[in-house]
Amino acid sequence: MSDGAATSPNDGLDGFEPVIGLEIHVQLSTATKMFCSCPLSFGEPPNTYTCPVCLGLPGSLPVVNARAIHFGLMIGLALECELAPRSSFHRKNYFYPDLPKGYQISQYDEPLCRGGRLGEVRIHRAHLEEDAAKLVHVGTSGRIHGSDVSVVDFNRGGTPLVEIVTEPDLHDPVRAREWLELLRTTLRQLGVSDVNMEEGSLRCDANVSIRLGGSVALGTKTELKNMNSFRFLERGIRAELARQAELLRAGEPVVQETLHFDPQTGKLSALRSKEEAHDYRYFPEPDLVPIQIDEDMVAAARAQLPELPAARVERYESEFGLTAASARHLAFRVELGAYFEAALAELARAGDGHGGVDAAPVQIDPAVAQQLANWISGELVRRLGEEDPADSRVAPAQLARLVALISQRAITAGAGRQVLDRMVQQGGDPEGIVETEGLGAIASGDEALAGVVAAAIEAHQGAAEKIKAGNAKAMGPIIGYVMRETKGRADGAEVSRLVRAQLGLEN
Ligand code: ADP
Ligand code: ZN
Ligand code: MG
To answer: How far away, in angstroms, is 369 Cα from ligand 2 center?
Structure first.
């Protein structure tokens, strides 16, 4: 099956229902590490941001980062979790070169947050822990005794993480990707993390199983480790679902194991068989006292919750009448939503006539709000890419006035695009650009337009015959001719009306 197939994402699974649960690691953007006062590192020279605590030297003692707990509580509140009144840390023991202590300080039976929900997915738990150091594979350049070499950079070791574990509530790879996007935009809006998948500040493991449609029992799952982009997450899950369906069709069992998805080849390979909690010999961290979460801490976290994307999507739909897709697009990129609302405020002021901050709110025509949303999501984003429109030359008020000119038919959409090109490149007011470039719409009934239409028909006799024979689609080249001649200033509907009239057809 190809990526992004237009068909349903679960086609080809022969009636098996996918079951997907995600485990997400979020690096918190605190100033310092989870249990020591080393600053967080962003690409500094290796092993320069370390101390006895995060190097795991004997006799050093961890101290909990209060800001990490605060961020953890904000995440818990945003995910509608139950916050633990008492929370404690455990040692999760295992050996690996990126883990100098021989254990990771994590949480076990008293996580900071339990239960909860984001969109259609229930949250099982969210807990605090520390990140491991980073293994850097230097490969052949560092060969020792003929083998490839890996080195360890301890700068990342001890970075605060929140691990979020969902219930297995997702049932197709596309929704899994969309849900992770919702989670990312929510975390970004909270301001608790950079949430950059490529850089590893947001990492996702996907647990995947299939079962016969209609059955409630869960099938055996596999775990796809460390998907580092949204696209790979979707593709990896898709590939694993197909692999499992193939096994079950052949009457073979799915083996519980941890897998790696290689986005280059699209292949899945086994990393290790699944470990159980008892393999880690979890035991309470003796160097840290349990944390007591009091009302003041919860209140402080709550006070810093902004309006979250899910709520914003709903508000854009109910308050401004935007389509779901449009509301989602604007709400998920905070800066686009802010720009949209600023532009809307301008339209409201203009419609109101007298303006001013104290003016009563004006009802904005949903069609105009939608048109504005479309111009932001479509034309403006196409020109600015990832740039925040607030940093562009186009002020929200100017875009609002451009859209108003189009909705009032003072200019055509085609001319509007040319005006926007100018605004993006050089700045300026839409009215001024329309004036200097001569882009005002040709008024209906304009004699000159009738002349251009006549010339267009003359130049496209064949098309004209087809239109007369009832083929309305043949209009294309004639309209194209008129648009070229008028620099896009003619109204398309008006032109096709004129064409039909000049060909003696009814309108
Ligand atoms: P484990 O003990 O193997 O770590 P958990 O019960 O802790 O498993 O679940 C880990 C993650 O796997 C959770 O996100 C959960 O929703 C998901 N999960 C559990 N069972 C299944 C299953 N059968 N199919 C898909 N996902 C599952
Ligand atoms: Zn340190
Ligand atoms: Mg688990």
So the answer is: 51
Task: Give the Å distance between the CA of 53 and the centre of ligand 2.
Answer: 5
The arrangement of secondary structure in 447-502, i.e. its CATH architecture, is: Orthogonal Bundle (1.10)
**Amino acid, single-letter form, for residue 212:** L
The total of other beta-carbon atoms located within 10 Å of residue 39's CB is 12
Residue 116 Cβ inside 6 Å of ligand 1? The answer reads: no
Q: Are 188 and 195 in contact (CB under 8 A)?
A: yes
pLDDT digits (tens, 9 = 90+) for 328-358: 999 988 889 999 999 999 888 776 544 445 5
119 three-state secondary structure: coil
Which residue intervals of 213-258 are DSSP H helices? 230-249
Cα 52 to ligand 2 centre (Å): 6
Question: What's the whole-model pTM score?
Answer: 0.78
Q: Give residue 5's pLDDT band: very low, low, confident or very high (50, 70, 90).
A: very low
What's the CA gap between 374 and 325, in Å, rounded?
10
Q: Where in the chain do CATH 1.10.10 domains reside?
A: 447-502
Residue 126 pairs in a beta bridge with 113, 164
pLDDT value at 67 more than 90: yes
pLDDT in tens, 282-326: 999 999 999 999 999 999 999 999 999 889 999 999 999 999 999
Closest atom of ligand 1 relative to the 22 alpha carbon: 14
Single-letter amino acid, residue 241 = L
Closest CA to 53 of 32, 68, 38, 69: 38
